[in-house]
Design brief:
Bound molecules: flavin-adenine dinucleotide
Mean pLDDT: 96
Strand content: 25-35%
CATH architecture of one domain: 3-Layer(bba) Sandwich
Radius of gyration: 21 Å
Distance between the termini: 24 Å
Helix content: 25-40%
Low-confidence stretches: none
CATH class of one domain: Alpha Beta
Amino acid sequence: MAAVSTVGIVGAGAAGLALASFLADAGIKTEILEKSQAPSTLGSGITLQGNALRILRQLGLWEEISAHGYAFNDLGLRAPNPEGTVLAILDEMQTGGADLPATFGMYRPKLAAIMRERALAAGVVISYGKTVKTVEDLGSAVRVHTEGGEETDYDLLVGADGIHSTVRRAIGITAEPQPTGMGIWRAFVPRPAEVVRTDLTYGGHCFIAGYCPTGQEDMYAYLVERAQDRHDQKDTTIMAELAANYGGPWNEIQQSLLDGAPVNYTRFTQHVVDGNWHRGRTVIIGDAAHSCPPTIAQGAAMALEDAAVLAEELIAGQSVDNELWEKFHTRRAERASAVVKASVQLGQWLLDGEKNADVPGLMGGLASRLVVPA
Ligand SMILES: Cc1cc2nc3c(=O)[nH]c(=O)nc-3n(C[C@H](O)[C@H](O)[C@H](O)COP(=O)(O)OP(=O)(O)OC[C@H]3O[C@@H](n4cnc5c(N)ncnc54)[C@H](O)[C@@H]3O)c2cc1C
């Protein structure tokens, strides 16, 4: 008998869909409340590291996912010169184990669609157009109130509602995302033949110019700059002007931008909830509990790991008690916090123009830790 019979999950992102699937597989009645009216079909690419793939494989999704993206085991470094000279090609640690690639790029909406179908097939109810407003702990259950005036009770409520989590605030946790001082332009574009892995260029006009192949036909490209007021976050010409400062595949990427490839601009933020992520019978996971700039591309991996660990503890547990929460936090809090710290540190070194930064040491140390399953 698991610790709970019914679970309400707020948010149909990676954390919510993964948790719901694991719980429904174990016979726990699971409902997701999602504020969007329908699944999004728009978006850019995502870089999934091996430890994210390990959880997706646990969900039985690796075979399908591997057919819809681009796998690679190395990382290129290019010079910020007009030729985009390749300076080094480094082996990446396979953090999901030797039988999974180190890195996998794919189109975000495709990942979301595969995870959504998986949850529905497991029997999860996904209710769209339901914005959670407040949460009431009744002692032996949690009552959720939506903006539409509906009330539902669950044995446990999980806030997987992202960086600006309503559930986090509703249970009195005051941590909020803070700006890190950087902003990122991203575009989804056709893949130049030369792009066979992620190549990063540090320096030049931006802090980082990078890309990740997401399939034979496509990839996403990004440029990280000092955060500024980019009122028109969809202005393709600004990203095209910035791209003109880089060489190699950036020539083709720039042409795609001039041809009108869709772009967007986002400012980096970060936060970690210190101490417990739960209050009574409500807990937050994924970006609701911790968020980081994507300098190491571990945000979704951490969200998936949170989901897998919480599901394991709920399924193995007898009741929602201190012992269960202690086990959950021991496995998650420090690990997620280390990822946020390293992601922020990388960005800060760039902002500070630090010449002696031990980037390989930081990345290698974190990767050795992530190889060990959460
Ligand atoms: C620019 C950028 C690039 C990134 N690139 C990468 C990358 O390459 N690799 C990587 O691993 N990570 C990356 N990340 C991080 C990654 O996107 C997140 O860590 C991950 O999506 C978090 O998943 P989640 O399920 O916790 O939250 P989300 O994906 O944000 O899902 C939250 C869901 O909750 C819903 N919701 C919110 N409020 C309510 C409410 N009140 N009621 C009902 N529903 C609600 C939302 O609509 C949403 O569907 C990036 C982040 C940024 C900002």
